[in-house]
Design goal:
Blueprint (H helix, E strand, L loop, with lengths): L4 E2 L8 E3 L18 H12 L4 H12 L3 E11 L4 E12 L5 E4 L1 H4 L4 E5 L5 E10 L4 E6 L22 E6 L7 E15 L5 E8 L11 E4 L4 E10 L8 E5 H14 L1
Antiparallel strand pairs: 1-13, 2-7, 3-4, 3-6, 4-5, 5-8, 6-7, 7-8, 9-10, 9-12, 10-11, 11-14, 12-13, 13-14
């Protein structure tokens, strides 16, 4: 029988911080883009019920400016030469100061990082900190605040099985791709090949593929409730079993990073 593997790369289990940011800057922007749930609730109250299609369109338009593509370059060495490896992933802007949330495995061992914003502008990025054990990392770009829209982080403790969710990211480098689905289960434990376990994560049937890692899982109010991190697949593509780190767990890691800056 063909073995099935979780497509998740996690190598170490320690929290680290690289001092490359301005002291006292807030990682999470709590004052930007918080009107998205209010707008959606207003539409629902006005029209009685918001159609699924309109939810998809409204949430996508609201959250898309906060989603970024991440391109990485890493160097490996064999006996005879150095080899350059390129990778792609996704992320979500969490502060107009340029802080971006993603998966640790997206940026781990990267020699260079480039971030593509929703306006297609490309910016060099530096890693600020992260937690390999929880597969959470923060990177930073020095882009004008006018180009940055911070996402609204929701409350993953209030989500329920069957709830509608949306994922935006860059599967196979296709920037800004939207997929939809539901929360299939909660409190899953996800083992990686190195023996590390991500605990109490969200399972979804929204299509998640390589390149979606680090992008947001979003509820129908336009709130980020998780960070897409892995899929369960026999062949490397989506089979409707994807996993996201609950945003409340991510917030705990962000507090640790913030305290260390």
């Amino acid at each position: 029988m063909e073995s099935r593997k979780f497509l998740l790369s996690m190598l170490l289990t320690s929290l680290f911080v690289v001092s490359c940011s301005t002291p006292n800057q807030k990682i999470i922007d709590t004052t930007t883009n918080n009107d998205v749930p209010t707008k959606l609730n207003s539409i629902i109250q006005k029209e009685g019920q918001l159609s699924e299609e309109n939810i998809n369109i409204t949430v996508y338009k609201s959250v898309y400016p906060s989603v970024v593509g991440i391109n990485t370059t890493s160097i490996t060495r064999d006996y005879f030469s150095f080899n350059e490896i390129k990778g792609t992933g996704s992320g979500v802007i969490i502060s107009k100061n340029g802080y971006i949330l993603t998966n640790y495995h997206v940026v781990d061992n990267a020699k260079t990082l480039e971030v593509t914003l929703s306006d297609k502008s490309v910016w060099p990025a530096k890693q600020v900190g992260g937690d390999k054990d929880k597969d959470v990392a923060v990177i930073k770009i020095e882009a004008p605040a006018a180009l940055l829209t911070a996402a609204n982080l929701g409350n993953s403790d209030s989500v329920a099985v069957g709830e509608k969710v949306l994922a935006i990211g860059s599967p196979y480098g296709l920037f800004g791709t939207l997929t939809t689905g539901i929360i299939s289960s909660l409190n899953r434990n996800l083992p990686a090949e190195d023996g590390t376990v991500l605990k109490d994560i969200i399972q979804t049937d929204a299509a998640i593929n390589p390149g979606n890692s680090g992008g947001p899982l979003i509820n129908s109010k336009g709130e980020i409730i998780g960070i897409n991190t892995a899929i369960f697949s026999p062949n490397g593509g989506s089979v409707g079993i994807g996993f996201a780190i609950p945003i409340n767990k991510v917030k705990e890691t962000l507090k640790n990073i913030q305290a260390s800056l």
